[in-house]
Amino acid sequence: MRQELQRLVDRMQDAVSAADAVECLRESGEVIGMRLPCALNDVSANCPVYDHEGRRIADLLGWPGWITDNWFDHAYVRQHPIYLRCRFENLPFGNVYADLWEGLSAPNPAQQQMKKDVERLGVVAQITVPVHLALGRTACVLWSTREPADIDAILTSCGHHLLAIGHLFMAVMQPLHDQNARARERELAYLSDRQIECLYWLANGKTIQEAAVILQISVHTVRQHLRVIVDRLRAVNTIHAVALAAQFGIIGRLP
After folding, report:
1. Structure pTM?
2. Are residues 71 and 116 in the same domain?
3. Taking a C-beta distance cutoff of 8 angstroms, is the pair 20, 1 a contact?
């Protein structure tokens, strides 16, 4: 199994198209006996992965249209316990679905519907690889199965191969160039330490007046800094600028 997965890791490294990457992902599912692989491009944005022709990867990998339509149309994905966990994990992890639902003491309506959908689909277990991307996005690559599987044994034996396949797959599937991101990246280089400090204190719930006192500068100066920041980040207003700064990671971790 490990030799076959290593071969697929090597192939994924050389993949030059979405079709190549999708086929490698499909074959990896066959190797580990979990024949429903898939990927999500951004968990928090409820965003599936598309190939370069605009087709959903889930459809290409054999997932029934009704479940992908249902979950993405109703934004179920970002409320799923497994995908919530992706925001806090870096390494592959497994779940048996029966245990997953039992662990929810009070599932909300979306989670109750997801449980019904999974039962209808017949999926019993899943292995997930979280993939943390640029600009604060959390993606994941996953393998699901309708048959009992020794998840712990697969992770122990091949977890590092699945980790590599997941990251390489997402690297292939990302757009080659994001001009908006590149433009913002250039603007971030021109933010001063003082401007970033102003954003930091606003992100921590301080008012402009309180930030001025903490930084020992005038309210007028804080406002000037914020106007420059809004312009440089191409934000709509200060709140939007704070959100973007947090997403880009330029104000550090908040308490």
Report:
1. 0.78
2. yes
3. no
